[in-house]
What does this fold into?
Amino acid sequence: VKKVAKKDYSSAPIDLFNYRAMKLFVNGDPSFNYTNEMIYDARMVVRFGNDSNNYYEYSAPIHPDIRGLGAQDNSWNGLNDVTVNFNDLTKIKIARGDSINIPYEISDSTGPPGSKYRVFGNPDLQSIREIIVGVEKNRSGLNSSISGSVWFNELRLVNVIDDDGIALNANANIQLADLLNLNFAVSRTDP
It folds into this structure.
């Protein structure tokens, strides 16, 4: 069972190419169970791509809210902080080879236990037409049904790629009638 919210950018696709990562916070209901990466009630899913056949996906088990349960501060469970590294997604897309019609899944070594990336089809970071966030019940979880609230907060792009570069511009104008007229201009910008 999956419940999702979708933002459609089909009229004006967004370009994520000049960013290194996407981040957001997820807050799980205090009633949710989390024992380990195999035994938990629900997982959160962030999917973005060109359409339902070409997408990147990040998912991870949802950890219960710890505020008011003896936590030192009043912050959300840090294991629900999500960082989707675009460089990892590109490596996964290249590593899967020609199998674009089969979902290619790999564990996220830098994320919380049980987190994973999935690539399906041929998604393009320069033409994102939809972003979907959702909750999926773990079929092997202890509870046969779950209810509660899950908050997805502060979806944002981080670490802009602003590497220095060089811009060159050259102009030429040659006129042979009336015995030659030659103009030439070169400009270079190096920030």
User: Anything to note?
Assistant: The chain is about 5% helix and 45% strand. The chain has a mean pLDDT of 85. The CA atoms of residues 122 and 174 lie 47 Å apart. The two ends are 52 Å apart (CA to CA).
